[in-house]
């Protein structure tokens, strides 16, 4: 069993699913429940076969969410492009639904996503173990603070809620 202080979670989430499936996912529900809370949580996002470490930080003063996804596999440029498009689609589905749930007078919902491939595994075997291990070893600053890097602040894609 994981240490409760780590607030580890696991979400089954398959990129490329239709909007109704994405909007009913445990990840979407968790995002809805945590907007504006100032919470941070981390865990694993799995498509059933492959898992990646994820860390999320919710702003307490706005509806901004910073997400960091760390994968253990190497990504080719084609993989990067494919994952970027898939996550852009997911964020484009989630953002208006989260905004609607937050209410008409709520601050804008902005989802910021950073993705990183560590290239430490050649095959996906054991990826869930790596994801948990990677998540646990992240520096505390990655686990508890929103992204303040220049790229997040200056990126029009980040500001629009897209990767």
The largest sheet has its strands arranged as: 1-2-3-4-5
Whole-number average pLDDT? 75
Strand content: 25-35%
Overall morphology = globular
Question: What is the number of helices?
Answer: 7
Q: What's the main sheet like?
A: 5 strands, mixed
Radius of gyration: 15 Å
Low-confidence runs (pLDDT<50, min 5 residues)?
A: 139-163
Count of discrete structural domains: 1
What is the distance, rounded to the nearest whole angstrom, between the alpha carbons of the first and last residues? 33 Å
- Please identify the structural class as seen in this structure: alpha/beta
Structure summary, number of beta strands: 5
Order of helices and strands: EHHEEEHEHHHH
Helix content: 25-40%
Explain what this protein looks like in three dimensions:
The chain has 163 residues and is α/β, with parallel strands linked by helices. The chain has one domain. The chain has seven helices and five strands. It has helices at 19-23, 26-34, 77-102, 127-137, 140-144, 150-154, 156-159; strands spanning 8-12, 40-46, 51-58, 63-73, 109-121. Strands 1-2-3-4-5 form a five-stranded mixed β-sheet. A hairpin with a 4-residue loop joins strand 3 (51-58) and strand 4 (63-73). The N and C termini lie far apart (33 Å). Mean pLDDT is 75; it is low at 139-163.
């Amino acid at each position: 069993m994981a240490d409760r202080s780590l607030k580890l979670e696991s979400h089954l989430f398959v990129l490329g699913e239709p909007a109704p499936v994405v909007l009913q996912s445990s990840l979407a529900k968790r995002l809805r429940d945590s907007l504006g809370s100032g919470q941070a949580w981390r865990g694993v996002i799995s498509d059933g076969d492959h898992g990646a470490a994820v860390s999320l930080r919710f702003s307490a003063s706005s509806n901004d969410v910073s997400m960091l996804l760390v994968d253990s596999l190497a990504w080719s440029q084609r993989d990067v492009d494919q994952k970027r498009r898939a996550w852009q689609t997911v964020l484009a589905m989630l953002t208006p639904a989260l905004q609607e749930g937050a209410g008409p007078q709520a601050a804008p919902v902005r989802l910021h996503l950073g993705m990183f491939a560590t290239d430490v595994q050649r095959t996906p075997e054991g990826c869930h173990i790596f994801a948990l291990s990677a998540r646990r070893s992240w520096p505390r600053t990655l686990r508890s603070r929103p992204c303040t890097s220049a790229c997040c602040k200056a990126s029009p894609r980040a500001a629009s809620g897209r990767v």
